[in-house]
Structures are given as structure tokens and as C-alpha cells.
Predict the structure of Pectinesterase inhibitor domain.
Amino acid sequence: MAYVHLLISLLIFITFKSSISVVPDPPTQNLINRICKQTIDFKFCNQTITSQLIRRQTSIKTIAKLTAAKAWINAIQTLDNIEDSLLPKAKDKRDKAEFDACRKAYKLVDAHLDNALKYLYLRDYRFMRAYQALALVNISMCRTSFFHPTPMVYANWNMKMLTDIAIYAGKILSPPPPLTKKSKKP
């Protein structure tokens, strides 16, 4: 029950946050830099994270929660756009097939990012990372053609970036255990 209350509060905050920008303090900006240097678009990543901050000093736990929630909300909005606009308005057979495949993929992305967020709140970071990785796999199932561009080209890029940002924040919050070498038997 506490998870649901926290999640609803976080979703309301992210959805209705004013456009007042917070300039992070140096330690917070260093955390953001560590995350964003791992992405393919530093500027997008930095802007995505800083636009969600409400305080100059923010912990990695808060950043991980904000980025995971932002990715999940984006998946929900993308799925809604596919189901409510793109699919019904598609005239071309190729577009309908692409949007239907994307609808199926984004239903899974939505479910996986929802689970990742739940496990983040439960502090089970191993399962959080596993569900985020599954979401990335499902994003790639929404195939888009650059020769026949649709709105899904940008939507997929945006979704992949947001999921990557959440994954990198989660890895800083709780690094995966190191791989162990098998010891040689004498």
C-alpha cells in the first residue's frame, strides 16, 4: 500500500511539476554527469534529469526513482498515443502493421517498467535491472523504418534514452555484483 501511495505521489509530481528549473549543486551535478556520460546524448540526459529536480541537493536514490518513473510514464503515454491516435488514423497497410507491432511491444515495455519501479521501491535492485533490460528488448521489437518514417522513430529513440538513463542511475545506486572468476582446480 505504501508503494502505491508513493508511486501516485511521484507520478503526480512528475506530471504536474512547474517549469521552474533547479540548478543542481556540484555533488548532484557530478552524479548526473556520471549517468549522462554513459548515454549517446549527454544534453538530452542532463536536461531530462535536471528538469525533474525540486532541490539543488539530490541523492542517487531520488534520481533513480525519478528517472525510472519518467521512463514508465513515457511508455504509458507512447502506448496511449499508438492506441488512441496512430493505429486508428493509419491508412497505409505498412503503418497499421508497424503500429500494431509497436502496440504489442509497448504493452510489454509498460509492464516491465512498472515492475522495475516496484522493485526499485522494494530495494530489490537485481530485479529492477532485469525488468529494465527486458523493457529495452521490447522497445527494439517496435521496428521502425527510416525509409518510411513514422512518429515511432522518435518515440522509440526517446523511450530507449529514458530507459537507458534509468538503468545507468540504477547501476550507480546499486552496482551489479562483480563477475567471479572460476578458480582452477589443481
About this structure: The mean pLDDT is 87. The helical segments are 2-16, 26-36, 42-50, 60-89, 93-121, 125-141, 152-173. The radius of gyration is 18 Å.
